[in-house]
Design goal:
Blueprint: E1 10-13, H1 20-28, E2 32-33, E3 43-45, H2 53-61, E4 64-66, H3 69-77, H4 91-100, H5 109-119, E5 127-130, H6 140-146, E6 150-152, E7 163-167, H7 174-182, E8 186-187, H8 189-197, H9 202-205
Parallel strand pairs: 1-2, 1-3, 3-4, 5-6, 5-7, 7-8
Helix pairs in contact: 2-6, 2-8
């Protein structure tokens, strides 16, 4: 297929309710809709830049992030059209994200996706372990998998490299405190930020 067109696209949605008519368009034209994130998703429908789990996973896999207008254009054409002109652009929220994270060079979704396509999976060959201090982590295994990494349930063995050790700023207990004295440990926010930007700013997020 030409650039910007996927033969059998797989859609999911974040931050908005997809109308039944829009789901019908997808099915009628030969596409697939998934309610949950999966590795087969090719298109994420969104109307603004929100740091949701699905959006972060989409950036990590290099999926196309498009506005709902894309489906309307497909309906009018009677086929899946070039999606590039429907790529999500949200300058206000992108600038706010850059300010909050002190990203001196700014941030755009387009640049992050281009970085993913050029450099490949962000965490390829990397294992990730979160210390017990990280309580809110239900989305992290999906994020690590989308970025090409391996999620570890147990603390890694010394020979298991490379490993990214993540934690919250508040230590969970003595055992974690001892480990954080021995190894380089980073704020878990490093992973969520990098999922959006496709850049691991380890120096900015190092805890120990």
């Amino acid at each position: 297929p030409p650039p910007g067109i996927v033969e059998r696209p797989v859609f999911t949605v974040t931050g908005l309710d997809l109308k039944s008519a829009d789901r019908h368009i997808i099915k009628e034209l030969g596409g697939v809709f998934r309610g949950d994130w999966s590795a087969e998703v090719t298109h994420l429908l969104a109307d603004t830049f929100r740091r949701t789990a699905k959006l972060m996973c989409a950036v990590c896999t290099g999926a196309r992030i498009v506005t709902p207008d894309y489906l309307r254009a497909c309906r009018e054409a009677g086929r899946f059209v070039d999606d590039r002109q429907f790529a999500l652009q949200d300058a206000v929220c992108e600038r706010a994200f850059a300010r909050k994270h002190h990203l001196m060079g700014g941030f755009t979704l387009d640049e992050a996706l281009e970085r993913r396509h050029t450099s490949g999976p962000l965490l390829k060959g990397v294992s990730v372990y979160c210390f017990p201090s990280v309580v809110e982590k239900h989305d992290l295994p999906h994020l690590v998998a989308a970025a090409g990494g391996t999620w570890l349930e147990c603390f890694p063995k010394p020979a298991q490299n490379p490993v990214l050790l993540l934690a919250e700023r508040e230590v969970s207990g003595k055992e974690e405190q001892q480990s954080r004295k021995k190894y380089k440990v980073y704020d878990v926010e490093l992973l969520r930020e990098a999922a959006c930007t496709q850049v691991l700013r380890k120096k900015a997020w190092r805890l120990s």
